[in-house]
Amino acid sequence: MGDIKAAIKGINGYVPDYVLTNQELEQLVDTNDEWIQTRTGITTRHILKGEDQGTSVLGIEAVKGLLEKTNTDPMAIDLLIVSTVTPDMLFPATANIISNAIGAKNAFGYDLEAACSGFLYALVTASQFIETGKYKKVVVVGADKMSSIVDYEDRSTCILFGDGAGAVLLEATHEEVGVMDSILKADGSGAEFLHMKAGGSRRPPSSETVARKEHYVYQEGSSVFKFAVTNMADVSAEIVAKNNLLPEEISWLVPHQANKRIIDATARRMGISNNKVMMNIHKFGNTTNGTIPLLLWEYENQLKKGDNLILAAFGGGFTWGSIYLKWAYDPK
User: 331 in a domain, yes or no?
Assistant: First the structure.
């Protein structure tokens, strides 16, 4: 019997009903559909509307659907991890709110924050709980309500982001499937290029920080693009070489959906054709922690047991990484 591995045994996604189009954004800021599509590949994004609607709303819907699809008793869940940069509140953890709503009374949980790379960080963390042999079922949620921290008067950021969530069920297996390898990296010198200026302990909320719009996403787009293109491509190529995989042996590249040009550059660096690259940025935009699980959800019926997947992401901070994942089940 081989070592214990953590395999994804189910996936589900959720996006809110309201769709924000490029044409609507033309009415808000100085931009146009052609400009947005040419630079990002985005045409629409989904937005969570309503009073007291936080990231947990997205996560709850994603997890409820996951449990139903996999016929999983919420009481059987050992651990629930939520990767997010937009928690409902600083405490309690959004993971606790979701666990309570779905009836996962036996699970402990916490939030993990690593910007757009958070889902990869959380997936690797969860897999290690499984690999100890102590935990049998772990749910990982990637969810963000980015509309809550986007300035819709800033055309450089408001065109990019949408709201959404995805959730996966990890279970122990002795088969050669699941999370096979990972490379995770961080470089704090990148903090100046992509961050939120206020709201933390360094600069607590005040009337002045609100007036200066310091509670929104701030980024220097050209610097972030340069770092993202290089590092996401490099780490993806690194994990392929580390595991002696040939381009033709890779079934799918599953890249973070930040910008189509970054995705294309990563695929070229790995020698992978476009028909093996998962893509949904055109309709969801950048949902931050939601992008990779939403991709797996949308492509689930095209995945076969044993498929080699390379997951890759780059996020503010800077954080980045890649996971070599072998898919664990056939289409249902």
Answer: no
Query: At 266, which helix (H) or strand (E)?
Result: helix 260-270
The pLDDT, as a whole number, for residue 332 is 79
Contacts of 166 (CB under 8 A, 6+ apart): 11, 12, 13, 14, 62, 119, 141, 142, 143, 290, 292, 293, 294, 296, 297
Active site residue 116: yes
pLDDT recorded at residue 227: 87
* Annotated catalytic residue within 22, 96, 259, 286: 286
Please indicate, yes or no, whether residues 172 and 268 belong to a single structural domain of this protein.
no
Residue 229: its pLDDT value, please? Answer: 87
Among candidate residues 96, 158, 231, 256, the one labeled active-site is 256
Range of the domain at 76: 5-176
Are 243 and 180 in contact, with CB atoms under 8 Å apart? Answer: yes
State the pLDDT at residue 2: 63
Structural domain contains residue 74? yes
- Rg, C-alpha atoms of the chain: 19
Q: Is 158 a catalytic residue?
A: no
What is the distance between the alpha carbons of residues 133 and 193, in angstroms, rounded to a whole number? 40
Domain count, the chain: 2
Among 176, 198, 223, give the residue marking a domain's end: 176
List 22, 116, 280, 289, catalytic entry: 116
Query: Is the bond preceding residue 318 a cis peptide, omega within 30 degrees?
Result: yes
Structure token pair of residue 119: 């889902």
In CATH, what number is assigned to the domain containing residue 92? 3.40.47.10
Element (H, E) at 269: helix 260-270
Q: Say if strands 137-145 and 308-315 run parallel, antiparallel, or are unpaired.
A: unpaired
Q: Is 286 a catalytic residue?
A: yes
Q: Which residues of the chain have pLDDT under 50?
A: 1
Non-local (6+) Cβ contacts of 52 within 8 A are none
Report the distance separating Cα 86 and Cα 95, nearest Å: 12
Per-residue pLDDT reduced to its tens digit, 110-158? 999 999 999 999 999 999 999 999 999 999 999 999 999 999 999 889 9
CB atoms within 10 A of CB 311: 27
